[in-house]
Amino acid sequence: MKKVILSLLFLGVMASCSTSAMAADACEVVLCMYGKTTGNSGSSECHSAERAFFNIVKENKHGFLPDHTADARKSFLLECDSADPAAISQVISKYGRVRG
Q: What predicted TM-score, i.e. pTM, was given to this entire model?
């Protein structure tokens, strides 16, 4: 019984560590995507942030849902409290409904 509990605890810790290490910071994504929107392509440091943004995709059995994808991407960007809402709106209007 102790081995089962310890194994589950260990797996839980490993899952939370790998998720947080791979998760992109919303503020970094806002900064990079806003730069992309205004024509200032980010350096190689923005590739992971852009990938994180474009990996947010909503689909159903009929395919890609652009409005739901835009809403999900906007919700993610709004996690950055210091981001300008106008900048977020500009990013979403240009890239929110774009597929990958």
A: 0.74
Secondary structure letter of residue 57 according to DSSP: -
What are the E-state strand segments in the chain? 59-60, 63-64
Structure tokens at 76: 């993610």
Domain ranges of the chain: 24-95
CA 10 and chain centroid, separation: 26
Q: How far is CA 97 from CA 12, 40, 61, in A?
A: 34, 20, 18
pLDDT in tens, 55-67: 999 999 999 999 9
Which residue, among 60, 32, 61, 57, has the nearest Cα to 47 in the 3D structure? 32
